[in-house]
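Morning run. Coffee first, then this:
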Amino acid sequence: MKIRKAVFPVAGLGTRVLPATKAMPKEMLTIVDRPLIQYVVDEAREAGIEHFIFVTGRNKGVIEDHFDRMFELDESLKSRNKAKEIAELARFQPDAGETSFTRQQAPLGLGHAVWCARELVGNEPFAVVLPDELVLNSPGCLKQMIDIANELGDKSNLVAVEEVPTELTHQYGICGVGERHASRANAFTIDGMVEKPPQGTSPSNLSITGRYILQPEIFKILETQERGAGGEIQLTDGMIKLAKSQKFYGVEFEGERHDCGSKPGFLRANIAYAMQRDDLRDGLRAEMLRYLEK
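And here it is:
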């Protein structure tokens, strides 16, 4: 079945980047000239996603406003003949009915946030995209995963993975590496998953990152999932249970991942994405050199 829907958990408080996120959702912090949430929605659209589902919380209304039309702005741009800006806004504007919003009333973890989208997803496979993790590459991470899912053609689940230093594996969800896919060297069957394993017990140094393709059976599991690490309902714990009856594949994606939920990662992402822009690269390089010479 075609993967048409993507869930974006955007209810988090963004405590790692306070005080910027005291009143502003972290998903609306800008990387160069557009908010984080726009980058991941664009990645999902590139992958063929047709329905964008946002799991929000309090003080997140500006995310919904971002994907709506603003009459006053449109009219102002038209009156000033700002054709370039009008075209740019139109390019990012979802069509009517493509976006849905639901609330996660309490901060109970990623697994609970995904479960909150169950009625909007329905009985079909879907993607989960974490907005504070950007992957700089073309094609994007999610398209790479959906291409592999289409090639597999069975009722499988996929997670994006990347290498982390062995001494830091206790900070991540880690997967075990099984058999490599016959025609996709970067895909393998997952042989077990563990959330934040104690140091020295990790099955590999491949961490589960912020892109998933899941089958709808995960919702029944998350409905009764007990709280795990951090006192939250962990998506990884739900996937461990689902793996008893369905296959899971790890995908070592191509691209440069940026953890924009941390201050160093956020700053690094701004530089990386700006340096990819022909209209900004030279000016940014000159400014950085000027600063380093002080």
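The mean pLDDT is 89. Good start to the day.
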